[in-house]
Every structure is written in structure tokens, then in C-alpha cells.
Model the fold of this input.
Amino acid sequence: MRQGDSSGPLVLVVEDYEDTRVLMRRQLELGGFRVVEAADGREAVERAASHRPAVILMDLNMPVLDGFTAALRIREREEMRGVPIVALTAYDTAEFRAAARAVGCTEYVAKPVAFDALLLLVARLSQGSRVETLEPEPV
Done:
């Protein structure tokens, strides 16, 4: 994938802080991905259904509808069950990791995000964008 190529896989970025969303979008676009954004979990569920992204980057702590509930609602849709959901949060605890897995998140990334590592993860997940979700880990 070439830098700036706008024909790459579609990534849904779900983040309530606009500055963070913009930064993530720019980094992903520079990495060759197309991006659609959502500012809360309700928008995430709507945009996941209408855009069918290859990968979803989901903040867990958001207003309106949190990322846990949004991930669960996305997983309820048959066509979205295999789409990788990467949980993004500043709360890097065993409890948050277990809760993210329980609602169907495929990967877990603690903030602040290392963008080089995130781009590699998104590239890997988007290549086989339909993956099995992980079973919850014991706490």
C-alpha cells in the first residue's frame, strides 16, 4: 500500500475527542487507508452498518453510547461479526481488557497510541478483515 493511496481498506475511527480523531485519520490516510469517523458509540453502530469497514478502531469511554455497548451492538449484526474491532483506551487494566474481549473486541491498544504500531496492526487486520473474535480472558 502506498503512502497517501486513497483506495486502501476502509477504517472506522470511533473517538469522542475531535483532535484525536483528526490525528488518527491523518495517520491512517498517510498509511494508505480510507477513513470514516464517528464521535460516539451510536454513530459507530450506524456508520459500521452503512459503510462496512474492514477494521474498526473503537474508543471505549465515550458519551451517548460507550464503546463496549457499541461493539456489542455491532457484533449482533451477522454481517459485522467478523470485522476486527480494536479497543482503544487510556484505561489499561485487566478488567477493561476482559470486558473488551467479552463484547467482541479483537485487539486492545492502550493510549497514548504508538501510531507506527497501530498502522501495522490495522494493515495486518485489514488483510484478512474477517477474523474470529477472541474469547474473554479470565481476570
In short: The chain has one domain: 10-127. The beta strands are 10-14, 34-38, 55-59, 85-89, 107-110.
